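Example 3.2
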Amino acid sequence: MLPLPPHYQTSQVGKIWRVPYQQRATAAAAWATQYNIQPSHRDQLQVGLLLIDVQNTFCIPEFELFVGGRFGLGAVEDNQRLCEFIYRHLDKISQIILTLDTHTALQIFHPIFWVNQQGQHPTPSSTLIHYEDVQQGVWQVNPAIANSLTGGDSQTLQAHALHYTKQLSDRGKYPLTVWPYHSMLGGIGHAIVPAIEEAVFFHTIARHSPAQFELKGNHPLTENYSVLQPEVLDTVGNQQIAQKNQGLIQKLLNFDRLIIAGQAKSHCLAWTVEDLLTEIQAINPQFAQQVDLLEDCTTPVVVPGVVDYTEQANATFKRFAVAGMNVIQSFEWQ
């Protein structure tokens, strides 16, 4: 394995700061020369690294949806290991792909979308909206947002809400969670964690391999935990509102080896891997053996006193392993 470059500081992983691009570009070019790191197109095996939502909103402790896990510093410690993984395997990782959870205010999982019979918005993180809640009028679509989303047709929006929550229930998905406003497009929470951004930029220069960024979650009428497809693809009358990310699916399946890490183990990462596994089993089940899940670089969602998805996440990863994927620790990869 390669050594860690002198600029990397573990203590800075959980903080916000500006990446000095030109300095890092100069250092990366020199690093590539010093360690004979070749451009990625010369790799005999094309190795992809898929990073799920390593954004400030999930990975910096004071931000809206910090994934702390049961022990409080989950995502920070995950990213410390992830940064080291990128630097130590700089010469083997051919390309890095990053997903970006991308939201605006008027979306189905944000408080403003819903009101109860008293006209109050739900409390974020502690409110789960089930199909029965919508059916019985416990929660209904906020009529004030209908003009922006459906040209003033609040009945159509309410019908979609009923359809949507039923689809989640029928497909065995998590019930609709009302989340705090997070990953807001154009905001600092939407950005990649600086330490990860720095490592990815360093890789880009050293390997002459541009990082690829994939936005997800910007449709107002559906959640999008997985980067490969939204939670619900249609609305009332089988009218399509979203679609699979076929281009990314094909790209991931074209790597000789694929490594996956990021946040959160119980939600966006799990759902992405779930959708990827479905595609693999339909096309080439053997490819599952070429997928490595870095289990020490991801943490499940835990909201103390409200919900703990640790057991569900662990069970899901066991199922991935049974399907042939390699569930490993980052230091085991070679």
